[in-house]
């Protein structure tokens, strides 16, 4: 009998691929490429980090006789330019890219040094986790995520295709942007949100324990990324300071206006000012792309789930029987309660069918927008 079991998908990138930096992003790329059968050579200034990444299967240790077709620099922002310069000189046949979260500052440094950047293409996968290091690496963190590729007038078509092929092989969506466009975009969508989350979470340090017991899913959502590593973020924010300051200044003006309105909420126009602030936030959320990049909105149905094994599985099984597709899921556990709240997001047309079907199957519905 012929074996019809599908094998691994054919990779667009041809190895060997050299990855410098065996932390979260470097090791995650290594895992994904290794799974595609590509020869991945890892290098890191920390022997312990390198051994750990190799032991976990992200690739093999680099050798002096390696001749890579692609070099991926995955090191902290403050040494990114140095490593790019070194790798371009050490591997004259390779295309070199980096995955740093700031694109303009390393490019400025390299240009100031007179480095030939013909074979260099900056890139940045918009992926990550709150935890770092080789232990936290996963091959699937790039799937469905944007991967910015920064080309310029010197970029050769074949080199650009290779970096975009890397993104596609890892399941990401390549997006071409200039370094300036990229840095302004991440200042708004990544760097300032990190600061806002950290500032808000910092208010919890001296808060009474009783206040923190009231924390629900909303405050957890808005402070989730506050657990990020300070050492890395000092580098990122310092390298992208000007665009970040622009957004912070505008945000500070907004906060000042709201605070002024709330100091005298009965003053003429004060309540309208607060309402306009909330409404503008509604409009901003509506602009965020949803599932598959669509702007389609979903409705939440909150279900009470007993805190015992198998209940989530039963809930999803019942949703499948009702023929409802879950677009998103959030879980919340109330302190001291023996149940949790599962918020499932579904298309608006399926809300009534979902509520009726789950109720018939014994589920308690906590809330719905229907």
UniProtKB/TrEMBL annotation:
GO MF annotations in UniProt: prephenate dehydrogenase (NAD+) activity
Pathway of action: Amino-acid biosynthesis
The entry's keywords: Amino-acid biosynthesis, Aromatic amino acid biosynthesis, Oxidoreductase
Family: Belongs to the prephenate/arogenate dehydrogenase family.
Pfam families: PDH_C (PF20463), PDH_N (PF02153)
EC number of the protein: 1.3.1.12
InterPro entries per UniProt: 6-PGluconate_DH-like_C_sf, ACT-like_dom_sf, NAD(P)-bd_dom_sf, PDH_C, PDH_N, Preph/Arog_dehydrog, Prephen_DH
Top-level EC class: oxidoreductase
Keyword hit for Nucleotide-binding: no
Species of the source: Microbacterium pullorum
Protein name (database record): Prephenate dehydrogenase
Residue ranges of every copy of the Prephenate/arogenate dehydrogenase domain listed in the record: 15-292
SUPFAM superfamilies for the chain: 6-phosphogluconate dehydrogenase C-terminal domain-like, ACT-like, NAD(P)-binding Rossmann-fold domains
Keyword Protein transport: no
């Amino acid at each position: 009998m012929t074996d019809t079991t599908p094998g691994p998908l054919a990779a667009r990138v041809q190895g060997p691929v050299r990855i410098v930096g065996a932390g979260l992003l470097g090791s995650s790329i290594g895992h994904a490429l290794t799974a595609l059968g590509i020869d991945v050579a890892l290098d890191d200034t920390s022997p312990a980090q390198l051994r750990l990444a190799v032991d976990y299967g992200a690739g093999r240790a680099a050798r002096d006789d390696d001749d890579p077709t692609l070099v991926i620099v995955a090191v902290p922002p403050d040494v990114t330019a140095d490593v790019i310069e070194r790798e371009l000189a050490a591997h004259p046949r390779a295309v070199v890219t980096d995955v740093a979260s700031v694109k303009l500052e390393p490019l400025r440094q390299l240009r100031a040094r007179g480095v030939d950047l013909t074979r260099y293409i900056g890139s940045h996968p918009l992926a990550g986790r709150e935890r770092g290091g080789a232990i936290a690496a996963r091959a699937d963190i790039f799937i469905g995520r944007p991967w910015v590729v920064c080309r310029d007038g010197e970029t050769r078509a074949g080199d650009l295709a290779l970096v975009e092929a890397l993104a596609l092989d890892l399941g990401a969506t390549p997006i071409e942007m200039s370094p300036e466009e990229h840095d302004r975009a991440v200042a708004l969508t990544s760097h300032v949100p990190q600061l806002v989350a950290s500032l808000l979470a910092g208010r919890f340090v001296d808060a009474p324990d009783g206040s923190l017991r009231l924390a629900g899913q909303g405050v957890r959502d808005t402070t989730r990324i506050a657990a990020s590593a300070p050492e890395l973020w000092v580098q990122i924010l310092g390298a992208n300071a000007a665009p970040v300051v622009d957004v912070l200044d505008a945000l500070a003006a907004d906060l000042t206006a709201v605070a002024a309105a709330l100091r005298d909420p009965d003053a003429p126009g004060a309540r309208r000012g607060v309402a306009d602030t909330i409404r503008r936030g509604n409009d901003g959320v509506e602009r965020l792309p949803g599932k598959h990049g669509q702007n389609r909105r979903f409705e939440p149905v909150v279900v009470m789930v007993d805190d015992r094994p198998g209940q989530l599985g039963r809930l999803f099984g019942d949703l499948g029987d009702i023929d409802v597709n879950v677009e998103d899921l959030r879980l919340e556990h109330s302190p001291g309660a023996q149940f949790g709240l599962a918020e499932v997001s579904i298309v608006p047309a399926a809300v009534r069918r979902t509520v009726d079907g789950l109720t018939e199957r014994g589920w308690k519905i906590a809330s719905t927008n229907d």
